[in-house]
Amino acid sequence: MKKFIKGVRFAPKNYSDEVEEKIQHYKKEGYKLPSRHLLRTEEQLAGIRESAKINTALLDYISANIREGMSTAEIDHMVYEFTTDHDAIPAPFMYEGFPKSVCTSINDVVCHGIPSTKEFLRNGDIVNVDVSTIYKGYFSDASRMYMIGEVKPELQRLVQVAKECRDIGVQTAQPWARLGDVGAAIQEHAEKNGYSVVRDLCGHGVGIKFHEEPDVEHFGKRGTGMLIVPGMTFTIEPMINMGTYEVFIDEADGWTVCTDDGLPSAQWESMILITENGNEILTE
What keywords were assigned to this record (predicted)? Predict the structure, then answer.
């Protein structure tokens, strides 16, 4: 019989006894563990999955309509219209002052590019479109790379390796692994191909808030960092640079992150759920 202490409410568990046993084992071993509120309930996961469906459908819509000659402001308009037509909210809009509904990052822009009526997609460009959705209070997040017109082979290769880095990160993010394992696997693949991994930005927990714990770095050392536990939801979104990993923020707008050496950067982002047997890709 369960003993109840006056004035204390026991929260219902949203994971199996086997998971609880493993959590207690790793806790005794001194591992860094996620806070219990980061382990999603079935109700939360139902809402997160619905948000993720809209987010993925939005990227599919962009994939079908993005074209040479369009302004990045047109992409922003597409994102706003599609999202609101699905009774959802673009999460980036006015988040900490960000002025648009989507991030559009071209060539040497690593991330957080602000759409503009004066910025157009040109033949040979590579562009990252990063969309995030709030649906009934639940958040989702993903980005894809697009190659505009005739893209040079070296840029095509950068885009492909960046995608491989994302996929390797997803494959490595298994229950009871460490976040350092994920970062190390990504870094190894990028550097093996002659590229660098941005270190000043990272993936993140997402689902109940836009940005939650943990930070998911895309470089690191195996066997270090937080333990990956079933029920966690977070993004894997490595930013892979052709040159140095060093970046800077454009002082003119306070948002746009660019490579320090002016060489191109590429990024793919997925959001995953850690399960007891592996992981589930929620957005890509």
Answer: Aminopeptidase, Hydrolase, Metal-binding, Protease
